[in-house]
Amino acid sequence: MRPCPPATPDESLILDDGDSIASVQRAHREACEASRRTASSLGLDDLVHGNRRGPLPLRWVYLHMLRELAQHCGHADILREQILNG
């Protein structure tokens, strides 16, 4: 798999020849564990750096991730409906 974060959103959809469902799941699990370790010592109002918008409170990062997750779940729901009602 490509390193995270990808340079562009489209690059996050590119798989390497050696990628499998198991390797993608493992990479996801490892990224989640690394994120949890990084955030474990931070409070919700602590600033995190590295975003193009500048320093942001961890609370904003969490809310942004929830919004993104909800949006992608909505996309998955639309695909599911299209498959079932196709």
What this model shows, in words?
- The protein is mainly alpha-helical and 86 residues long.
- It has 2 domains: 1-41, no CATH class; 43-86.
- It is 55% helix and 5% strand.
- The protein is built from 2 helices and 2 strands; from the N terminus they run H-E-E-H.
- The protein has helices at 21-39, 58-85; strands spanning 47-48, 56-57.
- It has a two-stranded antiparallel ribbon with strand order 1-2.
- The protein is extended, with a radius of gyration of 16 Å.
- The chain starts with 20 loop residues before the first helix and ends with a helix.
- The model has no long low-confidence stretch (mean pLDDT 87).
What key attributes describe this structure?
86 residues, mainly alpha, 2 domains, two-stranded antiparallel ribbon, 2 helices, 2 strands, 55% helix, extended
Estimated share of beta-strand residues:
under 5%
Q: What is the overall pLDDT average?
A: 87
Q: Main beta sheet: strand number and arrangement?
A: 2 strands, antiparallel
- Counting DSSP E segments of at least 2 residues, the number of strands comes to 2
- For the termini, the CA-CA separation is 32 Å
- Domain count, please report it: 2
Summarize the helix and strand pattern as letters.
Answer: HEEH
Low-confidence stretches: none
Strand line-up across the major sheet = 1-2
Cα-atom radius of gyration: 16 Å
Shape, principal axes of CA atoms = extended
Give me the number of helical elements. 2
Find the structural class using helix and strand composition: mainly alpha
In which range does the helix fraction lie?
A: 40-55%
